[in-house]
């Protein structure tokens, strides 16, 4: 009889030990998954920031390689308006500005998705978007953006 009781107690302790090992395995797996998600999020944020930087580099490259864009960009900072440009120069500059606007839209969407912080908007170069010529381009182009972004952009640009 005593042997049967000892055998039951041994089985009970084994079962408890197996349950504890099982719980620890589950907790360990959850910790591992949490670490993996954190590392993946960091990698996605890094890739997003790199893509935004590539967009800025593209704009600088265009400015450096295209004499017309460089000239109109300089004139925009002096207050030139659309009516003072040829249609060809305006169309080229409008395309250039649209690249910048799409860059800001991309930053905005990544910010909304939690991949970029609010300080990402501090590095945009708002003085360019506040010039009279760029405001005219914005008026021509803003219908091609979502209303929520239009409101957000105008709020940031004007403050």
Descriptors:
159 residues; mainly alpha; 6 helices; 0% strand; rod-shaped
Shape: rod-shaped
Fraction of residues in β-strands: under 5%
Number of helices: 6
- Helix proportion: over 70%
Low-confidence stretches: none
Write down the domain tally: 1
Q: Can you offer a commentary on this structure?
A:
This protein has 159 residues and is mostly helical. It has one domain (2-158). Helix content is 80%, strand content 0%. It contains six helices and no strands. It has helices at 2-65, 67-77, 87-112, 126-129, 132-141, 147-158. Helix 1 packs across helix 2 and helix 1 runs antiparallel to helix 3. The longest helix is centred in the first third of the chain and has 64 residues, at 2-65. The protein is rod-shaped. The mean pLDDT is 84.
Protein topology:
Elements (H helix, E strand, L loop, with lengths): L1 H64 L1 H11 L9 H26 L13 H4 L2 H10 L5 H12 L1
Helix pairs in contact: 1-2, 1-3, 2-3, 3-5
Summarize, please:
By secondary structure, the protein is an all-alpha fold. It has six helices and no strands.
